Amino acid sequence: MSATATALPVAARVDGDIIIDVEGVTLSFGGLTCLSEVSLNQRRGEMLSVIGPNGAGKTSLFNCLTGVYRPQRGSVVFHSARGHSSPIVADGGNTKPHHVNRLGIARTFQTTRLFNALTTFENVKVGVESRQHTGPVGAMLRLPRTRREEHDGDARVVQLLEFVGLSARANELAGSLPFGDRRRLEIARALGTQPELLLLDEPAAGTNPAEKLDLGRLIRRVNETGVSVLLIEHDMSMVMALAERIIVLNFGRVIAAGTPSEVQHDQAVIEAYLGTSHKAVGPGERPRGQSAAPSTGEG
To answer: DSSP per residue over 107-159, as a string?
Structure first.
């Protein structure tokens, strides 16, 4: 990422108040319960991480927060910085994903979902245009408001590409980008929708060590602009470096919550990752057959 990347305008924020509140969310598919009575909240401006072994329900939680899945029980309420509180999940119903995005929530995915036949610039413009108000008539007649929105939108795309370090690749097809750049492009497109809360689903999956360091720096800079970040990640070094608080899921239930240091030494978390029959290990060691960090599979 370019060291001279421009800074984005800092979003209006009041640190400490709640931006999203999740209460008792339960999600089942037939006889399989993916989430069971999950409750959590996130403070505005906070970097919060959700971790857990494969299959713990992390991505299912994201899908509930963004309107993709409809939980059978529980509630999810988003509190905008403008003072509005909007239920995303309530009374067995949910808000559609495009309406959730309009509220101020954006997300990325485990596997990048870019428009491979469009350029880097055009991919980000898709996100930016989601906030524009021009209708079909204005677009056909090229009204002054339409031309002004298009000019401002293009300027915003240029700013976002510089912010994520992709200015030099603006005219390249998204499908031709290296994997680390595709991850950054997806973040830029999400930022184009002007979110107050950004959900990142395993952004470092499939990246090399240098790309992970760049992504970590980028995520921190996004948070510094005032965007609250909710992060799912299996790379524990990244989680421990970025997160202010951590929520741990296992078999669809919250088993621990706290600071990185508190979670790291929580016995329930240790058992979830290593099992209950592992032998004690010394400092810097790990049980035979265990990797230094959990794997990067579906959560």
So the answer is: E--SS----TTSBHHHHHHHHHHTT----HHHHHHT-HHHHHHHHHHHHHHHH
C-alpha 109/C-alpha 33 separation (Å) is 22
Residue pLDDT, tens place only, 227-281: 999 999 999 999 999 999 999 999 999 999 999 999 999 999 998 887 765 454 4
**Terminus-to-terminus CA distance in the chain, angstroms?**
28
Integer Cα distance of 268 and 70 in angstroms: 29
Quickly count helices (H) and strands (E) in the chain. Answer: 10, 11
Domains of the chain: 18-274 (3.40.50.300)
Which pTM value belongs to this model? 0.83
Nearest 5 degrees, angle CA 100-CA 50-CA 273? 150
Report CA Rg, the chain.
Answer: 20
